[in-house]
Amino acid sequence: MSSFNNPSEEKHYYETQVPENEFLAWYKKQHFPTHDVPSVTVDIVLFCYNRDEDDLKILLIKRDTHPFQNSWALPGGFVQQNMSTAESCIRQTYAETGVNITRNNIEQLHTFSTPGRDPRGWVITISYLAFIGEEPLTAGKKTSDASWFSVKRTANLLTLSNPNKAQIKLNLINGESLGKDSLAFDHAVIVTKAFNRVYNKMYHEPQVLRVLGDTFTITQARKLYAKFQGEDYRNIDHSNFKKSLLPFLTEVGQKVIGVGRPSKIYKLKAVN
Description:
The protein is α+β, with helices and mostly antiparallel strands. It has helices at residues 7-16, 20-31, 85-97, 187-201, 218-229, 238-245; strands at residues 39-50, 55-63, 72-73, 76-78, 106-112, 123-131, 143-154, 157-162, 166-171, 177-178, 249-255, 263-268. The strands form 2 sheets. Strands 1, 2, 3, 4, 5, 6, 7, 8, 9 and 10 form a 10-stranded mixed sheet that branches. The longest helix is centred in the last third of the chain and has 15 residues, at 187-201.
């Protein structure tokens, strides 16, 4: 194809219809002709927890364009002019997945700037972390699929799986992808960074409890924490666990769950 009706048609053609090396050659002529300056993107790690299934999940999208066409990735994209990285994160998440998040949902995770992390050129990404409830998804522009992947920790192996779609295995120590399925760009490193951040902070900054909704029981919190620790929740001592979390919680009532005494219901205290 040698002629196009408009720049948008040309862009779509190179993003979807040619081999990646041909796309990259075209892209660099378009976007990096003279200026030796970086582009900035945002990527977001969204965790949710399904109480009924006792399932910790992460949100991934399947890329519909080069680079890494047809690979799974974190939601994200380029930061637009006159928009902060946080605003870009909120906008890109909705555009690619249909999920609405707010500034109250997100926290900045890390800046990733390793040379060569993006084959299109010098691209720095500001990553974010969010804890939300499980929501229905809608794949958006440049996204052929948006799906929740179950997250399972076994020692230092993290497995992200969705039946009939992909099973992605990551080394929690170095972020290395293992197996035939892998994430686009350096998103394996971003995911493991996020998971380890939650794990290392959850007993002194337990914001991960937000995936449980507005209220929860101590047992529900134990089940969630067990996912990050990679063990059966029954191995976590209930009394000691409760004692460690109480400074961050407010009791809001009781609820009958099964047989026996009613369970106390808590909510997470607001962060000052």
